[in-house]
Amino acid sequence: MLLHLRRRLLMALLAFAACAPALGQDPRTSETQHVAREWLMLTDAGDAQAAWQAAGKKFQAAMTPEQWTQALAAQRGPFGTLIQRALNASDFRRTFPNQPSGDYALLQFRSTFANRSVVLESISLEREGDGRWRVVGYALR
What confidence score (pLDDT) does residue 12 get? Predict the structure, then answer.
């Protein structure tokens, strides 16, 4: 009797799971991931100037194009060519440390390069006044 009840309960749960609507991905994730990947393509190509120009105002205020070119070469150069990159996590916030309230996104990619097997690339984005997401931070671990 108990076994029969368990089977019926399991069947009911499976039926419910099959009929439940799929949970959609937050549309901001697709939008910010697209912006981040476009920006990362510039860094992958070693085009620091274009990456700096495509970045947000806070990124540009933090360093000159020349400083960014040097930082990118020093940090990414030794890794070699990109092999693979996959989104690992995304998070959206209204507040960010030492910044005014706004729309912020934090994306983490798990990347593989020719000379380094696992790299975590963290990208910070902000929705700027024109409504567009732009990269405002980049870190490697």
Answer: 29
Third-level CATH fold of 27-140: Nuclear Transport Factor 2; Chain: A, (3.10.450)
b/e burial code for range 101-137 (CB count within 10 A of at least 16 → b): eebbbbbbbebebeeeeebebebbbbbeeeeebbbbb
Residues of the chain predicted below pLDDT 50? 2-24
Comparing CA positions, the residue from 121, 91, 124, 125 lying closest to residue 108 is: 121
Those residues whose C-beta lies under 8 Å from the C-beta of residue 132, and which sit 6 or more positions away, are: 35
pLDDT given at position 20: 34
Domains of the chain by residue range: 27-140
Q: Which two tokens stand for residue 77?
A: 């150069």
Overall pTM > 0.85 = no
Q: How much is the pLDDT for 28?
A: 83
